[in-house]
Every structure is written in structure tokens, then in C-alpha cells.
Amino acid sequence: MHPARLLLVFGASVALVSGFIDPNKEIETAIMQNYNRKHRPVKKDSTTVQVKVQLMINHVEEVDEHEQTMKLHGLLWATWYDEYLVWDAAKYNNTRSIAIESWKIWQPSLALYNSARGNGWHLYMHGVPATVSSDGKVLSSGTFTFHVTCLFDFSNYPYDEQNCPIVIADWVYDLSKVNLSDPLLDERSKPMIRLSFDPMSSDPKKHVAEDVSFDPPTVKWDENNVDR
To answer: Which of 23, 47, 49, 187 could crosslink 95 through cysteines, CB 3.0-4.6 Å?
Structure first.
């Protein structure tokens, strides 16, 4: 008799689990219906997609004084609004954000324009699922390894300070279609990211948008903190 009771309880549990509807999956199915990741995430062609980008350098691996290059490793975050990935949270158990595989949705085609290596200039954010909010806000992230070109000047050695530009932009669309900006500043149209980094400083690391007519963005480094 006891085994029969256990069997009945187990059967009831299976029925409850099989009848459960995952709101995350339900939302994804609804918003991804007829979705085309090759199209910009706007309903009017005249709308500019504002992409906010943040970079964090984790490690300066090497500095090549002869080739005038530097190798960097770090993390990249990008946010934008997708007008097709929206839903009424009240209809889905007040679920306000879900995770979607990044390759399923539109993403900006970011590229490092001053790459010192011809095979490593595209930036991909497909390794981690993107977070999508009910208002259409998308947060995507990825890792990067940059070989950037520099212009070294060792005339003040050993107290020299070197500057290397990091220039990122969308390589598919012009600024009227996809524009990069800094989340800490205003929404001015800037095609370039300026990143300042000092390994010896404890101050927060950040980048600021600058116009291309200005001096190039810089990465500051101290040769005592670079792997050889």
C-alpha cells in the first residue's frame, strides 16, 4: 500500500511540472515571431539606433616597441533599444526581463578601426546571452583582445608615458543609422570611443566620446606593469 501511495504522489508531481509554462520561454516565442536579426531594430528607417558602449581593460599583455603596437584584453558592454523586443509584463506574470541567446537578435557590427592585426578587428558579443527588458532595452557583453597601433616616444625614458588609440565604430552603418555614445555623457553623435586607462591609478576606469577631429583616444600604461 505504501508503494502505491508513493507512485501516486510521484505521478501528481510529474503532472504539475509538465503543466508549468515558463514565462521566459513564452515571452521569447512571442517577441521573436517574425523577428529578423538582419534588420536594424527600429520601425522607422529614419530612426538612429543609439548604442551605448563601455569598455574595461583587464590586462595589458605586451608592448611591441618595434612594431609600435600594444596587446590588450578586456570586457565590452553595449546597450541599445530594440523596438521589436517589447512586451506587456503584466501579461507574463510581471516578468520584466529575460535572457536571449545573443546570436538570435540584432547586434551592432562593432569594429576596432585601428587594429594592428587584419584578422582581429571585429568585436563579437555572442558568448553570453543578452538581457532583454520589457521596454526593449538590450544589454549584451563580450570579451576582446585588441592589437592596437601606437606612436611610442621614449625620449623621456624611464619616465615616459605612452598613448595608444582605441577607435571603435559600426562598420555596416553610418552615424545616421547606428551611433555610439557614452552612457555617462549626453547623446551627442560621436563616431569614436575614447578610452583612458592608467594601470597605476586607483581611479575608476572610463571612456568618453570625442569627435574624430580631436586627438585620438588613449590607453596609458606604465612599462613596469606590462608582461614581456
So the answer is: 23
Distance CA 208, CA 140 (A): 19
Instruction: State the Cα–Cα distance between residues 81 and 134, nearest whole angstrom.
Output: 10
CA–CA–CA angle 133, 86, 44 (5° rounding): 120
Q: How far apart are CA 226 and CA 10, in angstroms?
A: 60
Beta carbons of 206 and 152 less than 8 angstroms apart:
no
What span, in angstroms and rounded, lies between the C-alpha atoms of 187 and 32? 29
Query: In terms of Cα–Cα distance, which of 81, 94, 2 is closest to 43?
Result: 81
Q: Which phi-psi region, left, alpha or beta, contains residue 153 (left: φ > 0; alpha: ψ -120 to 50)?
A: beta
> What is the CATH superfamily name and number for domain 2-225?
Neurotransmitter-gated ion-channel ligand-binding domain (2.70.170.10)
3-class DSSP assignment, residue 81: strand
Interacting residues of 159 by C-beta distance below 8 A, sequence separation 6+: none
pTM confidence score: 0.68
| pLDDT digit string, tens, across residues 130-164 | 999 999 999 999 888 888 888 878 788 777 777 77
Q: Cα–Cα distance between 199 and 87 in angstroms, integer?
A: 43
Give the pLDDT confidence of 73-109 residue by residue, as tens digits: 888 889 999 999 999 999 999 999 999 999 999 999 8
Distance CA 170, CA 122 (A): 10
Element (H, E) at 180: strand 178-181
